[in-house]
Amino acid sequence: MSLVVDVLSGAVRGGTSVMYGALGETVSEKAGVVNLGTEGCMLVGALAGFATASATGNPWLGVLIAAVGGGALAGIHAILVISRGANQFASGLTLLFFALGLTSLYGADYVGKEIHALNPIAIPGLSDIPFLGPILFHQDALTYLSYLTAPALWWIMASTRPGLLLRTAGERAEVLTVHGYRIATTRYAAVITGGALAGIGGAHLSIAYAQSWFENMIVGRGFIAVALVIFASWQPLRVMVGAYLFGAALALSPALQARGIGINQFALDVLPFLVTLLVLAFLGKRTLLSAPAELRRVFDNTAT
Amino acid sequence: MTATAEAPPTDPPTTPEPETGGSRLAGLGEVVLRWAGAIAGAIIIFAAILISKGTDPISVFTDTWSATLLNSYSVQQILIKAAPFALAALAVVVPSRAGLVNVGGEGQVIVGAIAAAGLDLAFGASLPGGLMLLVMLLGGVLAGAAWAGIAAVMRLTVSVNEAVSTLLLNYVALDLLLALIYQPWKDPLGSGQPASRPVEDAAKLPVFSGTSVHLGLLLVVAAAVAVWAVFRYTAWGYQLQAVGGNPEAARRAGLPVTRLLLTAMLVGGALAGLGGAIHLTGVEYQLRPGFASQVGYLGFLASWLARHKPGAVLLAATVLAALAVAGDSLQLDSGLPAATANILTGLILIAVLGWTGTRKKASSR
User: Fold this and answer.
1) Which helix (H) or strand (E) holds A227?
2) What's the rounded Cα separation, in Å, for the pair B61 and B46?
3) Would you give the distance in Å from CA B121 to the centre of its chain?
C-alpha cells in the first residue's frame, strides 16, 4: 500500500471512536450542555461493551450495552447540571474520575481477555475501487455505521421535530416553555443521547480497534472529542472531517516508521491539538458566533 | 457566571435560606448537616460497589483507614501529594474570581516541571545548589505563567474561550514532556522507562529532618495565604472580583478589564507552574511519563470542592491526596486496583457538587 492510502485508512480507523464521541458531544452541546465527562462515557462504553461481548460472544450486544453505559454515566451529569445546577466543567471532570475508578475496578478481570471482535470486512465491489476502496471500504462494521451516523445526525438536527427541540433548548430555551415543552426533559434527552454515542465510540475502541480492554484505554480521546466539536463549529459533517484529521495525525508516525523514516512520535501526536488551537485562533470570533447561545453563556461569563 | 448560567428554571426547590431572623448558627448547622449527609451518601454507595465486587467494605475501610492515616509514611505521602494539588487548585481559584475557567492546570504543572528540569540540565553543575533551586522554582513559575498566558492572549485577542484552549494546551504540554524524555533529555544511565536525568542533589528541596516531606509545603501554605490576602486586601484582588461579578459594569466603571483578566490568568498559571517545579525538586527529582498525571484535573476539582476559597483549598487538596494515597493501600492490602479510590473521589464530588450548595452559595460565586 502506498503511504497515503496507509495513512488515510488508518485515519478512518483511528478517527472513528473520536467521531462517535464528538458527535455525542455535539448533541449535548447543541442543547446547551458541555460534557467534559465524554472521556468517562467512552471509558464506560469501552468496558461495558467489551465485558458484554466477552460474556455473550456477541459484539453487537456489546455495542448496545456500551451505549446504555455511556448514556447512564451522562445521566449523572445531566442530573447534576440540569436538576442540581452544578458547574458543568466540574461535574464533567468529576464523572471522568468516577468512570476511571469504576472501569479499573470492574475491568481488572477483563485485562488480557480475548473476544469475538468486530473485524474489518471488505465490501465486495466497493473495496476494489482504487485508492478509495482500501481507505473507506475495508473497515469494521461500526466504522461503516459511523458513515451513516454523522449525516443522519445532521439531518435529524436540521429537519426533524426532535432536532428542532434540541436546537431550541440550546438557542432560546425559554421558547420551549412557551410552547409547553420542558427544557429539562429536552436537555436530559440530549445529554443522555450524547453519552450513549460516546459509549459507542468507546466500544469501537475496545471491540473493533484495539480488540482488548486495558485501564484508562481512552487516553484523552474524549477530551479531543470535546475540542473537535468546537473545531467543527457544532456541525456533524465537519466533526467527521475533524475526526479523520485527528486519525491521520495518529496514523502518520507508525506509517512513516514502517518505512524506516524515524520521527519523534510525540511531535506528531501534538499536531491535532496545535491544528485545533490554530484553527480556533484563525476563526476567532466566528467560532463563538456559531456556538449555541445557551452554550455561550456557559463558556463566556466575562465576555470581552 | 458559569454555575448559575445553567441553573434552569426547573431546578427543584432547594432548602430555603434561613429567615432573616434565623441565627447564623442554624445556617452553619444546616451546612454541616448537608456536607455530612453528602459524604455519608458517597461512602454508602462506595460500600455497595465494593460489595458488588465481592469485597467486604468494612474490612476495606478499616484496613485502608489504618494503612493511610495511622501510618506515618502514608501521612507524609499525603502531604507530599497535596502540595501540587493545592497549587493546581489555587491556579483555578485566582482566574475563577475574575470569571475565567482555567482547565489547564495539568499542562501548566507539566511545563513548570519541564522548565525546572531544563534549567537544571543547562546550569545544574555551574550554579551553587541553593541558588540553582531558586532559579528552578522561578523558572517553573514563569513557564506556568507563560503557558496560561497563551490561553489568556488567545482569549483577549481572538476570542478563543480559555476553558477550551487551556484544555488543548494540556495535551501539547504532555506531548512536549514525552518528546523531551524519549529523545533529547533521556537519561543515558537510566534503565526501564525513559526519564530525564535526576536533578543535582544540591538543587533538591530540603526535607523536614527524619521525613520525606519537603520544605515546599511551606511555600504552598504561603501561596494560599497570599492568594487569600490579595483578594482580601489589595485593589487588584478587589477589581478582579468586580470583573468576575459583572464585567460590563466593571468596564463602565473604568477598570482595565483586559489587563485584569490577563494578569489573573498569568498568576493562576504561575501557581500551577510552581506546583510542577516543587513536585520535581521535592518529590520526583526527574521527569518521567506520567509525571504529575491528573494533578491539574484533581486540582480543578479541589478548587470546586473548596468553593474557590484559598484556605479551604488546602483542606480539599489534602482530602483528595489522602484518597489517592488510600488507593495505593487498597491495592496493597485488598488487592483492588489503585484507581478504585477514584470511585470514592468521584462519588464525594458528585455529592458535594449536587447536594451541598444552597441557592445563595450558588449565586454568590
Assistant:
1) helix A221-231
2) 10
3) 27
* Per-residue pLDDT tens digits for A221-263: 998 899 889 888 899 999 999 999 888 888 887 888 788 777 7
Contact between B350 and A76 (Cβ < 8 Å): yes
Q: Hey, are the CB atoms on B342 and A98 less than 8 Å from each other?
A: yes
Q: Which residues of B touch A299 (CB under 8 A)?
A: 101, 161, 163-164
Helix, coil or strand: residue B119: helix
Do residues B97 and B231 touch, judged by C-beta distance below 8 A? yes
Minimal CA separation from A196 to chain B, in Å = 20
Cα A151 to Cα A19, A23, B135, distances in angstroms: 12, 10, 55
Q: Cα–Cα distance between B163 and A251 in angstroms, integer?
A: 28
Q: What is the pTM of this model?
A: 0.90
Sign of CA dihedral A237, A239, A243, A249: positive
Interatomic CA distance for residues A164 and A186, integer angstroms: 10
Q: Please write the tens of the pLDDT for every residue from B89-145.
A: 999 999 999 999 999 999 999 999 999 999 999 987 788 878 999 999 999 999 999
Please report, to the nearest 10 degrees, the dihedral formed by the alpha carbons of residues A35, A40, A44, A46 taken in order.
100
**Whole-angstrom Cα distance, residue B215 to residue B65?**
26
More confident residue, B19 or A251: A251
Q: Would you give the distance in Å from CA B94 to the centre of its chain?
A: 12
Domains of chain B: residue spans and CATH? 56-335 (1.10.3470)
Separation between Cα atoms, residue A43 and residue A24, nearest integer Å: 14
Cα B282 to Cα A187, B81, B107, B218, B297, distances in angstroms: 46, 11, 19, 12, 21
DSSP secondary structure string, A70-132? Answer: HHHHHHHHHIIIIIS---HHHHHHHHHHHHHHHHHHHHGGGTT--------EEPTTGGGSTTH
Q: Is the dihedral of CA B129, B134, B137, B138 positive or negative?
A: negative
Cβ-based contacts of A76 with chain B (< 8 Å)? 350
- Give first-to-last CA distance, chain A, whole Å: 51
Which candidate from A80, A82, A285 shows the least CB-CB separation from B350? A80
User: What is each CA distance from B253 to B32, B243, B245, B250, B262, in whole angstroms?
Assistant: 39, 10, 13, 5, 18
Q: Among A97-106, B247-256, B281-290, B308-317, whose mean pLDDT is lowest?
A: B247-256
User: Which of B261, B337, B357 has its CB closest to that of A302?
Assistant: B261
Distance between CA atoms of residues B220 and B211, nearest Å: 18
CB contact under 8 A, B297 and A299: no
